[in-house]
Amino acid sequence: MKIVDLDLPGLKLVEPKVLGDARGLFLETWNQARYEAAGIPGPFVQDNLSRSRRGTLRGLHYQKPNVQGKLVSVVAGVVWDVAVDLRRSSPAFGKWFGVELSAENRRQLWVPGGFAHGFAVLSDSADFTYKVTGPYSPQDEHVLRWDDPAIGIDWKLAPSDVLLATRDQNGKSLAEAVCFD
Fold first, then answer.
1. What gap in Å lies between CA 146 and CA 155, rounded to an integer?
2. Alpha-carbon gap, residue 147 to 44, rounded angstroms
3. Within a 13 Å sphere around the CA of 60, how many CA atoms are in the beta-carbon half?
4. Which residues are catalytic?
5. What is the pTM of this model?
6. Largest interatomic CA distance in the chain
7. Which of 27, 81, 120, 143 has the CA that lies 20 to 30 A from 101?
8. DSSP 3-state of 35
9. Residues in a beta bridge with 26
10. In whole angstroms, what is the distance from residue 51 CA to residue 134 CA?
């Protein structure tokens, strides 16, 4: 397993070791001791799976005060995965990072608390998994505007092709967002 510290402090890209032969493949998607030693803490309290069609954009979501760290990956399809630093004390405040996650590259992204997270589906459909460090708390959920020009995310989709839930259509700009210290 290879873990890469990314430009936004706290974000980590995990490239698991894949063992394959004529029968198929095997990879470790979570090992508490190895991940914690690499700076990805548990405990994880919930696992989630979403299936979405091409053009779906989910996000940018975060919780405050009951934050969730997220270890995310794709088991079928391809997504463009994005995290935005919402920690005012961070030198990367308001900056974003994007990476392609797919069933083929088997990468995982660790998104700690203090970040907004979202993804856009680039394939016909995608199955996306989340391991989270805190339970879903609807009263603590916030949505950052996916197309805020102050952030300038390249979603790898034409805006006219983006499919959004109502809550994501009503996200707050960075200037209006509830942020972290």
1. 9
2. 30
3. 30
4. 61, 130
5. 0.95
6. 53
7. 143
8. helix
9. 19
10. 21
